[in-house]
Write a structure and sequence with these properties.
By secondary structure, the chain is an alpha+beta fold. The protein has a single domain, classed as Spore Coat Polysaccharide Biosynthesis Protein SpsA, Chain A (Alpha-Beta Complex). The chain has nine helices and twelve strands. Strands 5-10-7-11 form a four-stranded mixed beta sheet. A two-stranded antiparallel ribbon has the order 1-2. A hairpin with a 2-residue loop joins β1 and β2.
């Protein structure tokens, strides 16, 4: 997912999409693509806003240089993550789907989690990370190794486990989104979708061990992500996503 206005990174985003901004030596979106490729996912749909769709196509092409297959869809206006996901209905068909936000950098190798979700008969899987500022995120409560509650940007968080921008869903997600109503800010919230799976009793979770960077949160997180990438395994293995000159 590479939509949104990037307002928290203005004026860097005045003339470009935030997912095209550099994180260390590569465009931000490269890291999400590597996360998917490393997990064994090579068929990818990139959803972006209309203003910069051409830039993504020019940068990424068909996916051949990445050893992947790219499709593109345009989100006509900012309608939330869930609304952007709904655009992938034809692309996904009846298959399960993984969703990664293009401004999230995830150090963990997700291959085993993908295999685990493939064995999960139905439902969804969310990914969590302990954070210092849970008020800024969707916060998850866990009891007896089960998700009991997810609250978006709570004033008084009951845990420090943030729901990061990585989700896995079965094909019923598109029907769930279809019946969602916009939130107060006029968007279809992914937290509401996750809570439907929670109510249905088929939501699982994983807590990430490696670093996680939310590059779109602030200038500080964008800068910190560059330092993390430079001093991690990404400094070498992300070279596999370098576009040919």
């Amino acid at each position: 997912m590479a939509g949104g206005t990037g307002s928290r990174l203005y004026p860097l985003t005045k003339v470009t999409n935030k997912h095209l901004l550099p994180v260390y030596d590569k465009p931000m979106i490269f890291y999400s693509l590597f996360t998917l490729k490393e997990a064994g996912i090579k068929d990818v749909m990139i959803v972006s806003g209309r203003d910069h769709a051409g830039s993504f196509l020019k940068l990424l092409g068909s996916g051949k240089d990445f050893g992947m297959n790219f499709s593109f869809e345009v989100q006509e206006e900012a309608g939330g993550i869930a609304q952007a996901l709904s655009l992938a209905r034809e692309f996904a068909g009846r298959d399960k789907i993984a969703v990664v936000l293009g401004d999230n950098i995830i150090e963990d190798n997700l291959a085993r989690h993908v295999k685990s979700f493939e064995k999960q008969k139905s439902g969804a899987k969310i990914f969590l990370k302990k954070v210092k500022n849970p008020k800024a995120y969707g916060v998850c409560e866990i009891k007896n190794k089960k998700v009991t509650n997810i609250v978006e940007k709570p004033k008084n968080p009951k845990s420090n486990l943030a729901v990061i921008g990585l989700y896995m869903y079965d094909s019923s997600v598109f029907d769930i989104i279809k019946h969602q109503k916009p939130s107060r800010r006029g968007e279809l919230e992914i937290t509401d979708v996750n809570n439907v799976y929670l109510e249905n009793g088929n939501l699982t979770y994983e807590v990430l061990k490696g670093f996680w960077g939310d590059c779109g949160e602030s200038f500080d997180t964008l800068l910190n992500a560059s330092y993390l990438v430079k001093n991690s395994r990404f400094a070498k293995i992300s070279d596999r996503l370098t576009i040919k000159k």
